[in-house]
Amino acid sequence: MIEINGGHKSGSGTIVRDAVSLSALTGQGLHITNIRTKRDKPGLRSQHLKGAEACRQICQGRIENAKVGSKEIRFWPGERLCGGNYYFDIGTAGSTALLTSILLPISIFCEEAATFKITGGLFQDFAPSAYYLKHVLFPVLHHMGIDAELKILQAGYYPKGYGSIQVKTVQLRQKLHPITLLEQGEVLRIDGFALSSLLEERKVSDRMAEACQISLRAKGYNPAIRVIYDTKQNPTFNKVSIQAGASLAIWAKTENKCLIGSDMAGALKRSAENIGKQVARNLIDDLETGATVDRYLADQLIPFCALADGTSEYLIPRVTQHVETRLWLVEEILGAKTQIKDNRVIIKGIGYQR
User: Fold this and answer.
1) Considering all CA atoms of the chain, what is the largest pairwise distance in Å, rounded to the nearest integer?
2) Residue 39 has pLDDT above 90, yes or no
3) Sheet containing 187-197: which strands, arranged edge to edge?
4) How many CA atoms lie within 13 A of 303 on its CB side?
């Protein structure tokens, strides 16, 4: 049985998410202790619990002590990874994107295609947005051989949630390709979405987009940000959000096929103008480091690179706790070899094959 100290490194929910997902792939039992002990609300939260339960369902395994607040769980994966159609309701505004991050490494190795409908939050702090997954993470994973698509069905924000996405994955019939991104290259274009729900009268989407464009143009870029208002008259989504909210997401594409993104959700007392400026600032900061991935993709790629057949290398804006934590986990659970040289992440994958 794999023993993982959930209080090690960042001590975050990332440890639970990655450990359970990778356990399901290796077929090894997992024992996690000290879950999220460094957090204000330690132990499993609803979104972590739902992620572990989703993994259990797909691999037909079992979990011990799976309840909100648990600081210790045991997970025994089954022998099969079953595709098909699934529905997971987080039950809170917990991140649908983070739940997707648990399911993706498993679903591509399922015995058949898999479709997940997930209900919860789509746009909130401390998690990538649905737009970021769709336009940054998924396209990069496509270069590694992963066929996955995401559709936003209904916007959902903190604190009520009730947003929904649909994720479809196709069975991987070969080993994952490693990825090499060592030169950023010239920025060819910057695209994005400025979305707000039930806030058309205050012109929130326009204000976010304008502030962001002004900041980017000051640096010589010419962004194309699409303004979207989520209302009954707009057929963009299946249903209108049940509460007001906003999100801005942008991404830069370079001549060397790098995708570097930045996003932020609306929040109480957070003005549309400040969101626009900060999202632009974060993108500019990451671009100016010469990195080939942004601060979020830096750690999100790690599990996939560890499963790939060969050595992946890419440049990150800076070393974060999340990067260190996920590198530690893929070494502990998969036996991948990793290192960081300055801001270059090097991962020798295990060439995983089901």
Assistant:
1) 56
2) no
3) 224-230, 187-197, 245-254, 259-265
4) 24
The catalytic residues are 322
What b/e readout covers 242-266, taking b as 16+ CB neighbours within 10 angstroms? bbebbbbbbbbbbeeebbbbbbbbb
pLDDT tens per residue across span 298-331:
999 999 999 999 999 999 999 999 999 999 999 9
- Cβ–Cβ under 8 Å, residues 108 and 121: no
13-26 and 321-334 helices, crossing angle to 10°: 20
From CA 96, how far away is CA 261, in angstroms rounded?
Answer: 18
Predicted TM-score of the model (pTM): 0.96
Sheet-wide strand order for 30-33: 2-5, 30-33, 73-76, 62-64
CA torsion sign for 287, 289, 293, 295 is negative
The HSE-up count of residue 206 (CA atoms within 13 Å, CB side) is: 5
Six-digit token pair at 24? 């399901």
* Residue 19 tokens, joined: 């450990």
pLDDT in tens, 218-227: 999 999 999 9
CB-CB contact of 116 with 167 (8 Å): yes
Residue among 4, 29, 18 nearest 326 (CA): 18
Rounded CA separation 151/303 (Å): 23
- Residues 272 and 208: their CA atoms lie apart, in Å, by 5
> 138-172, pLDDT tens digit by residue?
999 999 999 999 999 999 999 999 999 999 999 99
Contacts of 173 (CB under 8 A, 6+ apart): none
Give CA–CA dist 136/260, Å, rounded.
7
- Which residue type, as a one-letter code, is found at position 93? A
Q: Which helix (H) or strand (E) covers residue 56, if one does? A: helix 46-59
Strands 30-33 and 73-76 turn out to be antiparallel
Q: Domains plus CATH for the chain?
A: 1-80 (3.30.110), 192-288 (3.30.360.20)
